[in-house]
Amino acid sequence: MHVSFFDVLVNELGLKASKGAKRLSSRRWQRASVWITWVLLVVSMAKPVWLAEPQVRELYGRDLLVVADLSGSMSETDFVDPYGEKTSRLSAIKSVLKDFAKERKGDRLGLILFSDFAYLQAPFTADHSAWCELLEEAEVGMAGQSTHLGDAIGLGLKTFQQQPMLKEKTSKEKVMLVLTDGNDTGSLVPPIEAAKIAKHLGVRIYMVAMGDPNTEGESALDMTVLKRVADITGGQAFLAMSRAELTDVHQTIASLEPQQFESFHYQPKESLHVIPLIIIALNQLAMMTYCMISQRLSGAIKTEFRTNHRVNVEKRGAGL
Fold first, then answer.
1. Strand (E) or helix (H) holding 316
2. Which residue from 10, 165, 177, 292 lies 20 to 30 Å from 320 (Cα-Cα)?
3. 85's torsion region: left (phi>0), alpha (psi -120 to 50) or beta?
4. Is 318 exposed, middle or buried (0-12, 13-18, 19+ CB in 10 A)?
5. Which of 86, 239, 108 is nearest to 166 (CA)?
6. Which residues neighbour 90 within 8 Å (Cβ) at sequence distance 6 or greater?
7. How far is the C-alpha of 230 from the C-alpha of 218, rounded, in Å?
8. How far does Cα 157 stand from its chain's mean position?
């Protein structure tokens, strides 16, 4: 750097100057800080993690398939709702099943509707809200007027078999709840034969007969067949002539001990990549603070030197 008044400045300050240049070099701690910063950046990019103690997650519940009758007799208004008003059998089923579904935490629910033929309304799902919406869509007569009970049980068994994750479950975990108000009328597979297949597959069937057992004709309740189906599969048969009795039946089934249907191990991980970055930030902040303090101290020393020099010059001038 060339300064035109450099000689005058040197003479006035009384400095001894010579040609050449001075190279500023970093100190050891500054070089060490740069290397530490680089190493910490590499460590942070490697994304280190902290592994906590291994955990075991066990899921409990059952696979419960509800089979509901939609034959014409389900429109009979011989049930009473909580407000004391008469309601149809299907409406009573919907009301009780919705309350039943709310309490089935951990269970997977499925839904089959039947009359002249049976069809799967809702596959097994843990989304109970969606299951209730599909149940609400059921209407009397939408699948015919008669009661093909054996075919409905057969479709239920097929539904269990089509679920790959359900094939290895024990009989305590596979439950079928059948709600009907009439006897079987012309199924391709008789209910007793369907029950034997269910026993072989490890499916327990709970039969719920609705309505008056003294009814005659196609709407008559064949309690002998219903009890036989339940006994073969290790389930139970119930007679529900009111909404209160229907609620008691569902509470009995709900009291069954749920079984573990899935278990997996996992190890919580917590990323530590932020810690090296925090150390780098603190290190840089410390260096900046040191530099600012050094500059201020250096500036103060230079100011004091210039002040002292000016005083000395003034004294010499006064002496002259």
1. helix 274-319
2. 10
3. beta
4. exposed
5. 108
6. 68, 70, 74, 75, 138, 139, 140
7. 21
8. 29
Q: What is the set of domains in the chain, with CATH numbers?
A: 63-257 (3.40.50.410)
DSSP H stretches of helix in 163-272: 191-201, 223-233, 243-254
Q: Among all chains, which residue has been given the structure tokens 């810690």? A: 275
Burial class (CB within 10 angstroms; exposed 0-12, middle 13-18, buried 19+) of 223: middle
Q: Which residues pair with 236 in a beta bridge?
A: none
| DSSP states of 81-132 | -TTS-EE-HHHHHHHHHHHHHHT-TT-EEEEEEESSSEEEEEEEES-HHHHH
Query: Which residues are 175's β-sheet partners?
Result: 64, 204
Identify the sign of the CA torsion 256, 262, 268, 269: negative
Contact 89, 78 (CB under 8 A): yes
Distance, in Å, from the CA atom of 247 to the CA atom of 27, rounded to the nearest integer, reads: 84
Q: What is the DSSP string of 265-307?
A: EE--EEE-THHHHHHHHHHHHHHHHHHHHHHHHHHHHHHHHHH
Convert the pLDDT of each residue in 244-277 to its tens digit: 777 777 777 777 655 555 556 777 888 888 999 9
Dmax of the chain from CA atoms? 143
Strands 79-80 and 63-69: unpaired
Q: Which two tokens stand for residue 228?
A: 């036989």
**pTM (two decimals):** 0.60
Tens-digit pLDDT profile for residues 43-82 = 999 988 888 888 766 655 678 899 988 887 788 777 777 7
